[in-house]
Amino acid sequence: MARQENDGKSIIVFSGDLDKAMAAFIIATGAAAMGSEVTMFFTFWGLNVLRKSGPVAVSKPLLDRVFGWMMPKGPDRLGLSKMNMGGAGAGMMRFIMRKKNVMPLRKLIDEARDLGVRMIACTMSMDVMGLKQEELIDGLEFAGVASYLETAEKCGVNLFI
Amino acid sequence: MAERYVNCKGLQCPGPLVQVAREARGAATGDILVVEATDIGFKKDVAAWAGKTGNELLTLEEADGVITVRIRVSR
To answer: What is the pTM of this model?
Structure first.
């Protein structure tokens, strides 16, 4: 079947909360499974979803380094938007989701990549938050607002999460 | 025209959809996918998926908490 015009989906991932990031990736993988072109644009706290969990050797100023320590490193470290309780809530949520066989966020990210979802990291936010390309997972594009808007114009669904 | 069995039992949304999409991609036109799933949301979702992707939902049955659908891969 020919792809309709404006069939694309774009999702801005602004939040670095586990629950919101999961919602974003469930929509993204679902849309990709339904044959749509999907673009995810990661900005501000959303960039933490894409961080590698292990230590990455990069040289950067002290302030950037401190910022990096304070923010969660990757999908396994994110907190909940509600009832996080210093991370206890997020741990409980992960336990329940594992028990109920819900795909963990890390797996959802892999599925999304496998299905050809485009992931763009906002370079301005990366600079503000002191995150280097090497600290983020592979397979990303690096761009700014014009790239997002160019994509969004071709999409019938544009979400901000 | 082959028949392929797709086991999605126990998978939560969007797991079954992703599995079905993957199998459909690997199948030839005219192949039949027989999908079993336990997520009740899949009943509506699989119809939406089939409509959107241009594949044909032939039958949908539910027994003992298992949803069985037959899909003809049409493209």
So the answer is: 0.93
